[in-house]
Specification:
Number of domains: 2
Order of helices and strands: HHHHHHHHHHH
Number of helices: 11
Strand content: under 5%
Distance between the termini: 63 Å
Helix content: over 70%
Oligomer: single chain
Length: 274
Amino acid sequence: MKIYECLTHTHHIGIDTQLFFLSPILVYVLWRWPKRGMITLTTIALASTIYRFYLTYVMQLSNYIHMSASTPQLFATADYSYTQPSHRLQVYVMGIFVGYLLKYSENVRLSQTTLKIGNALAVACFCLSYFGFYNMGMKDYVYNPMDAALFGSIAPLLFCFAYSWLIITSELIGKGPLGRFFSWKIWKWWTKISYGVYLTQFPIYFYNVGRVRSSTTFSFFGTQYNIKEIMWIIFLSMLLTVMVEMPFQNVRDIFMKKKPTKKESGEVRHEKES
């Protein structure tokens, strides 16, 4: 798949679909043989990380858009790294591990020492993933394949570990201030339209860019936070969710709805009669 043959965001759907069909196999292996499954999934994630590091270094790719990045380099990064499911396996496997831990760790109690160490590591990983490669954003930065390889392979792991730790601790010991913030009810509403936002934002961006016919003055906040553009994205996302996504979810529920057993049907009739 060539990145210039599809819209900027649609390759994510292809990648997620492939990993979605692969995930039941990985989950089954982890459920059927826990120890062997953990070793297998860890090996897969490690292989994905090493392969991503190797390819980025050898082909001189860059997932970080630095000041001296060339168009051929960005296209090569998209074709050989950004759109490859094998490169995203590392964080996908981490998500499977988090789900497994939440499923089978209901009675686990974290000690204060473990909690403090985990919190410190999570904060360190978060800071490293965000600020550890700040030099790549400098105006006078000269491309270094080692920097790009480390950023492309290690930064996603650090970022995902920080958020995974937040999710796990929030479920096991209760929500702190940060956990309560991420559990805010408004995020549930945002989750419902998030897929619509994903599908509509880039076409709106492209349309607005294509409408520019003359030179203009750009400001950081005015360009970055275009209120009119944001409102259109939210409106069209809600429209797409209500008119397309939710009806298809209802169709899915109708076909996949579990039929009640004879015993359950009898109990329902008995309750109605009484």
